[in-house]
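Lab notebook, bench 4. The sequencing result for the construct came back, and we need a structural model before the next group meeting so we can plan mutations. Quick request posted to the team channel:

Model the 3D structure of this chain.
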Amino acid sequence: GGIIVTPISTSKIIEDIAEKYGGRVHWTVVGSVIVSHELKRVKGVMGFEDNGGIIYPDHQYVRDGAIATALMLEVMAETVESLSKIISKLPKYSSVKRKITCPNNIKQEVIKRISEKLELEKVWKIERIDGIKVWFDRDTWILMRASGTEPIIRIYTEAKDVKLAEAIALKYEEELSSIIKSMG
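Done. Here's the predicted structure in token form:
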């Protein structure tokens, strides 16, 4: 059990595993500093980032590759299973990440306009923790968010099927491009 803290861009696999073991996920905006802060604030048991970074508060409140390795070795020792065997038991999702160039001065307006379009579509759920995350069903989503460090909008999609994840990413990359051009 316990609270797992991770950015809204992280794979749903984190939520699936947390639920399996009686835990829950506390979603944040993207950034390891924010994950660390929220991990302390909500007294979470573990922090993750979509890039694979792990924050283990029993050790320290920053990403640490060595502790990630040690924790994986501990799981392997406790289960007496190989890493490939452990991974084979995890839920399978396909993720696609893209980015589209967008001038800094219009990034937020572009996100606002794509959000307004998406609100008119039939979707399962919409989240606005960082940009807009649209769930088409329980396992299929897209996140579009303005980068905080570059003149780009990041696009993240996830689905059980890689072709579906790619198709969703392409569709909304084209939508974003059209909005950006219309503002040019």
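Helices lie at 13-20, 32-41, 65-79, 83-88, 107-119, 162-183.
Will bring this to the meeting.
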